[in-house]
Records
---
Amino acid sequence: MEHVETIWITGATSGIGQALVERFVADGKRVAVTARSREKLEKLANGRNAVIPVQADVTDEEDVKRAYAEVRDALGVPDLVIANAGTHINMAASELDAKNCRKLMEVNLFGAITTLLAPLPDMLARGSGHLAGVGSLSSYRGLPLAAAYGATKAGLNNFLQSLRFDVETYGLSVTAINPGFVKTPLTDRNPYPMPMVISAERAAGYIADGLARRKMEIHFPPLFSWSCKLLRILPYPVYHALVRRITGSRNRRG
Ligand SMILES: NC(=O)c1ccc[n+]([C@@H]2O[C@H](COP(=O)([O-])OP(=O)(O)OC[C@H]3O[C@@H](n4cnc5c(N)ncnc54)[C@H](OP(=O)(O)O)[C@@H]3O)[C@@H](O)[C@H]2O)c1
């Protein structure tokens, strides 16, 4: 019998996650979908056999472990796990607040790590599996208004890069997914223009194709992401002056 690929994805009920679920289902895969809102999960599944709703809050370790056990009961140990749940709070200097910074860390960094570690022992024992985390191009270097968000995504990228060394000898793959601007409810509240913004469906296309090739890093849209990679290797003072000019941050006071 042909093997049907099984996937567990968090942050599945909106934006990039939701578009990915639809792409996976169209490709004939079975997907366990996680988010906090049970109602949105049921709406997404819509009675489809290929979509299994598993409610959880990724900031709660016990909840994530319970959710993973449900996923394993439904699908077996999944072939692919995508830690996609994330959030963003734009914080100008006067709005920087330790509680909000911690909240972003809890969801974007610890939530992703907790999700990826839940299936790890089973994948190590089986000798196969693919772990992916959704970072951001903002992880590459500091950016205005992104002190907390960028730090969560930089942390996640470093975690994934290091994890790859440790698990590849067991036959596991690890992928860091770093999107540019994608139009979703999360970015609809951004107070600034978003260069080279793409749809969630296009983002899902880049991600699904890159995951199928088990790429180490999936970054897009290409013109924007390669420009960010070039900016990354500039000497720090040149980078700082250039980004200040491009974003107009020199004139901004929050
Ligand atoms: N959009 C972009 O331009 C962009 C760019 C780079 C990176 N990213 C990253 O891509 C990922 C998806 O972003 P998006 O734009 O698609 O966001 P979105 O439309 O706001 O969707 C976020 C999803 O995460 C879920 N979620 C949030 N907090 C959660 C929690 N504590 N536990 C479980 N689920 C939770 C939400 O459902 P519930 O509220 O029901 O829990 C929802 O399904 C995020 O990691 C984001 O940082 C986005």
---
Amino acid sequence: MRTRSLTASLGLWTFAIGLAGALAGALAGCRSLPPSKPESQWTIEEARGAEVYRQKCANCHYPTTTRGLHGPGLQALTKLKAMPSGAPPTDERLTQVILHGRQMMPATQLTSEQLDDLLAYLHSL
Ligand code: HEC
């Protein structure tokens, strides 16, 4: 009897784990994002923007995922309908957030050239 109920509960577990795996897979599928532009295809502007990003943003934001670090990951940021705050990812809004900060995010000082490069890079993510 004992062996039998053990087998039964093991079977149930295997089923539950399989189900969880299938669900996780389905969820991951829903969240798949448009791909980023590969580094080998960056324009000069995008490459300069990537350098600005490394210096000013990378400590707090991953560029290759939406998973959070100190702030949200920025992959596909400009291809989504809304940023984490709910605001649309327009250049105006991005400029505002970058230059003036937002809640826990500090303001970043950039020249207008650095800002243009950075925006070009953000569009490539
Ligand atoms: C010290 C950490 C830090 C740095 C440096 C930083 N951020 Fe952030 N960022 C945050 C945090 C925290 C948030 C979430 C703010 C909030 O509560 O909405 C955020 C939010 C954002 C958002 C989402 C805004 C929204 O409306 O949802 C964008 C876009 C962003 N940051 C871009 C940048 C860029 C580009 C840089 C580099 C110029 C940068 N951040 C530098 C911490 C940082």
---
Amino acid sequence: MPIIVPPIKCQGIKTKLIPAIKSIIDSPINGTWIEPFCGSCVVAFNLKPNKAILSDTNQHVINFYRAIQDDSITPEMVSEHLEKEGRELLEKGEQYYYYIRNRFNATQDSLDFLFLNRSCFNGIMRFNQKGQFNVPFCRKPHRFAKPYVTKIVNQVRAVRNILHSHQWIFQVADFTLTLSCSQKGDLVYVDPPYIGRHVDYFNTWTKHNEEELITVLDNLPCEFILSTWLENKYRYNSSLKENWQDKNLRMILVKHFYHVGAFEELRNPMIEALVTNRAVKS
Ligand SMILES: C[S@@+](CC[C@H](N)C(=O)[O-])C[C@H]1O[C@@H](n2cnc3c(N)ncnc32)[C@H](O)[C@@H]1O
């Protein structure tokens, strides 16, 4: 099956981990798929569980998918918006990107969010302490050329088809609230921000958050899969060893190369780990 690529990009997007995650989920998901750090939602779009709760503290992502779900944003509207604003960008250059960025920070419009997400520097999603999008322009005024707009519109159409045929709930929520809804038979997938990486308004992740997550996962009534990292060229995640190694859980390691990221460190190969209490089906 080809990978479904979502229209929204974000740091730490797990497109490359889909085959490994699928290998853990070797039977249909009967309960609810619960994903409290859903980000781009690439994992859910590729697993297509019938019922899902997808949440994140970043309201812009949630608002965007809700708008596609309830048809307040359609593929045709996306096409029209990106073509129109893309023409202005080509004509007026960089300053037009900043005009849209200011407009988005004032109105939080979901179509402007998509425009920024697909024309900002390195596809980063970063917000300052006031919650304002602050990523600079990618410096490509011809960004929204016809083939690129078509590609994004097709991505919107693909996710719309999934959203219209599945029972998914999107919510803006802290992970603790989302996970408190889990029940026996559900399947939880957690992909929290990694400590010390991509820190911003929506991605501040402290030792306290990490400990809270570990406690919640330890007490879940259902199975879970946790995405984390083991090491890269520069660093080793000692918390993986401290918190998970002695718990007799399955650990799957995947060498992964991030293309989204401002710093060279983030663009080096990373060994990702999937930790799960899901039993191997015989
Ligand atoms: C590593 S990203 C998830 C990427 C996602 N799995 C994907 O493939 O696109 C982590 C996400 O956690 C969200 N987040 C950060 N702190 C959170 C919190 N306390 N509760 C819920 N979501 C949070 C961020 O907004 C971000 O979207």
---
Amino acid sequence: MSLTPGHDLGLLQGPLLIFGGAYGNLPATRALQSVAERRGIPPQNIICTGDMVAYCAEPEETVQLIRRWGIRALMGNCEQSLAMRAVDCGCGFEEGSACSALSVEWFRYADSRMSAESRSWMAQLPQTLYFAMAGRRFAVVHGGASQLNRFFFASTPTALKQAELALLGNEVDGLIAGHCGIPFGQQIAGKTWLNAGVIGMPANDGTRDGWYMLLEQEGEALQASWKRLSYPAEQARDAMLKVGLTGYAEALISGLWPSEDILPETEKMARGVALSVAPLVF
Ligand SMILES: [Fe+2]
């Protein structure tokens, strides 16, 4: 399914704060809001790449916080599924996989907690955002440019990423995505691919932290830098256990995903190794 027409935010002056995957993790989302306030980054300079609701215990509360905050938000596959009252999360997990089995638990829960008003809000979210910064034009998508729920990891072959960038046309210099859950940044044939990471689930690196990305102007250049988000993970875990969400609860503490079906070999090998993402200047 191709993406719906995008929404253009025009010219933005940095710094921008970009994140994805709040996943119904209210303590993590609150912590990120405090980071933005401390850094003095206003809501119009904050972009969420989607999946505000998934694994964790407070989906409706997280959506309400994001709406009150007034940041720019993109439709992820979870918003799409909840807005459409679909039968599953639309993550694109293979049938019969552990990810697919695990998603039944949290999707049913999230679906049962979501208000009609939040679903209506999700239904009108854009699937692509465009903005310009320091003479560069960016497209922000949830997974890929061809498909909302397509997984692109750091190790995904360059040719596949190049094909996605080509779909966006010559005028787009960089793509910013989420969905895969592990942040990275790469230069691909003169263009830029950035994944901002997610705040609501660790990066399968054996630490509790979530990740977000800052995009700042440095003279004529732009710099993307990735930051760890530390937050009270026990609080989010306890909230999950209290409502019977067991599948991903301990992952918030161990920093390890309960299933790696979606991961390429390279990312599987990095399980439990504390992630470090070097800043990208371009
Ligand atoms: Fe997603």
